[in-house]
Design brief:
Elements lengths: L6 E7 L6 H9 L5 E5 L6 H6 L4 E4 L6 H14 L4 E4 L11 H10 L3 E9 L6 H18 L11 E4 H4 L10 H13 L3 E8 L15 H17 L2 H8 L4 E3 L4 E3 L2
Length: 254
Amino acid sequence: MNSALRWCILIPCLNEEKAIASVVKSALRLHVPVIVIDDGSDDRTPEIIRALPVTLLRHNQRKGKGEALRIGFREALRQGFDAVVTMDGDGQHLAEDIPRLVDVGKRFPDHIVIGARLLQREQQPKGRRRANAVADWGISWACAQPVADTQSGQRWYPRSALELVELDAENFVFEAAVLIAASREKGLGIVSVPIASRYDGAFRLSHFSPVRDVMRIALYTFGRVLHYGKLWASYTRSRSAPLIVDDTYSHRTA
């Protein structure tokens, strides 16, 4: 990749009328195209988005985050983008972190870049932190490489990852499925950039269920572990320290 690559921002959202205007406006200040996917909101979210200079794709009824990302990936591929950055519409992700992800994506071609919530982790609810730790353990095993913060929705996806758009996975499982298939079938690496954990009570309740969605992810992930085989070798590779890159240098950390 090089500085001339074309990328855009994808924002899936559902009932985000309180935050979506500020989220989208902050993304627009980066002066790149923004695609917003509304997953059948029944509040003022679509009305607010229509007033902004973005591409709006909308489901008439809720189909889940996986399908929202899927149609966003298809649109990005249709428009010929080389990569996308995803961020959630509830305000937990900051557009000001995106240039760091893009810079790392350019420095590490053939990698997915995750904005990993490694800073101010004390803000994460304990139940959510435990659920994320379980997901990180299992998904890293399925990927056969260590991944820091597998549940973060702020990610840089190169085009080769976008081409996995038709994976048979729905809801929050889709994001895990992309990481796994990108690792095992595309040979992509995964690198993380530290971002702040933001759970200060200003956001609406998460659509992610620590019980239901973790169970769905766990079942899918276990199936992928068995599918690819070589269980011990994959597990051993996944137990090394993840690749984490800060603003000035890269290093591996536990």
